[in-house]
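It is worth pausing here to work through a concrete case rather than discussing structure prediction in the abstract. The textbook approach is simple: state the sequence, then state the predicted structure, then interpret. We follow exactly that order.
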Amino acid sequence: MQYDLLLTGGDVLDPGANLRGVMDIAISGGKIATVAPSIPASQARKTISAKGRLVTPGLVDMHAHVFVNGHDMGHQTDHFCRCSGVTTLCDAGSAGSSNFAGLRHVLDAEVRTRVRAFVNLSALGITGTSRGGELQHFPYADPEGCARTINENPDLAFGVKLRFGPNLVWEYSTAPVKLARRTAEMAGPNVPMMMHITDSPVPLPDLISEMKPGDIVTHCYHGRAHGIMGQEKQFLLKEVVEAQRAGIIFDCAHGRNHFNFRMIEKALDQGFLPDTISTDLTTTSATKGPVWDMPTTMTKLLHFGLSLDEIIRRSTANPAKIMGYEGTVGTLKPGANADIAVWELRDGSFPLIDSDGDTIAAKRRLLAQMTLKDGRVWYERPAE
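Step two, the predicted structure:
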């Protein structure tokens, strides 16, 4: 047989590869072999019908946490990912230089989801305690160790993470951002830094002025102090618009505290789209909400007018490129890893909640029906 598996008759949507329409997808050796309007079933060992379903690349979640407090999602990572169409995710700085080996051990021993990671500027990583953040005391910063960890783990680590906010940093100035940027430069010429912003004590333009193209501002749709619309929260700051045009990446990263419907509606109305869509998923936000999973976050943005094409691009090709997977993950083009998500786009009335307790009733929502990773079925939605 020429192919191991043939997925037939699905409505294929892969903006990164300019694929759109009813097509068959042939898989061989865990890779996409070919995508065409019609491929003979006789050429494949097994055939799966995707008729009437949307078919996309497996999702890439740009911001989640496998190892907060030294465990968090841990061995549950695969469960949360595969039933939501996610095959690849980025751990956004759960671990620092002192415990990064623990993150690697968990990934090697317990996780099949494809993962890359930012290394926290703090040696402690994210502790999640109520007594302050991981950089509340300057001695916890470990720029040399962070850069060394990135260089010693090139298959896993690829950037520097800084959380900037109340009780998170030792000084409410641009100094923590400057140190994170210098750390990224120590690690290599193209190493990005990711900066968490929510309820910042410092105006966002001051912080992003210290960033470079390719760096990432995460939680861009929070509704608290000093966000993308400043303190007035009415109009996009020109510095934010200019930064995005210059190549600074804005990631939505839902989370428990960072996704405000009113902010999203205003931002989209003013033409400000996130460059990447992500969840900031942890065990708590996956089991108690309001995040739940990537399809729920995508559904919320669909409700506010972001097109399905734009949503899929920002959930597949865009984050894959940032993570160093361009052409191999987040796409269905031949030669790529055969990571595929099959969806139902269901009509109805679906109540959804943001991080501040506001609700909407979405008229459509995405439901994962099947997830394939490396050419094998990894999840099938139970019959209802």
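Step three, interpretation. The mean pLDDT is 97. The longest helix spans residues 175-187.
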